[in-house]
Amino acid sequence: MLSDIDDGAIAALRDERLDWRFKAVPAAAHGLTVGRFLASRPSLEEFGTPLLTLDADALDHNITTMANWAAEAGVHLAPHGKTTMAPALWQRQLDAGAWGITLANLPQLRVARAFGVRRLFLANTLLDPAGLAWVAAELDQDADFEFMSWVDSTRSVELMDATLRTTGASRQIDVCVELGAPGGVPGYARMTTP
Questions:
Q1: Which domain of life is it from (predicted)?
Q2: Domains of the chain by range and CATH?
Q3: C-alpha to C-alpha distance for 90 and 98, rounded to whole angstroms
C-alpha cells in the first residue's frame, strides 16, 4: 500500500539539529539533534515561552474519535494541517484514516509536499499563476498526488483554467464550489468538478 506521507521524511526530523530557529528550545540544546535532546527527557521548566504542550492521551482520543466518526458517517476527513503545521501529527491523522490534509496557502502546500503528503485540500482559491504552475508541476510529476482547491465563483474556475492551459498542465485540478441562495448566507457544496 502506498503511504499517504513520506515516513522517512518524518523520521528524519529526529536528526534535525536544534539552534536559534527553534523558539522555545533552551540554548543548552543547541547543536543537539531533536532525537538526542528528547532522549534526555527535558522537563517543561527548561523551555521558553510561549510553549504549546499536548496531552498524549487526549490527542490519541481525539484522533481516534474523529477517524471513527468519519468512517461511520462515510465521509472523507481532511484535518486542518494549517493549524499545527506539524507533519508528525499529520502522519498520525493520515495513519488513522484521514483522506488528506487541509491547508490555507501555497507555502503550507509546499511544506506538505516536502513531506510527501499525497492528498491536499486548499481551503482557499488558488489564483496565483506561479502557485498554479507549481501545483500543476507537482501533479504532472506524481501520478499519486491529489489536489483540490476551494473556489467561490465560476469566474475563479475560469481564471484557474486559463492559467493552467498556459502552463501546459496535463492534469486538471479538482475544485469544491461554494454555493449560496440569493439574499441568503452562502452554503458550501463539496462537489468535485473536472
A1: Bacteria
A2: 7-46 (no CATH), 56-193 (3.20.20.10)
A3: 9
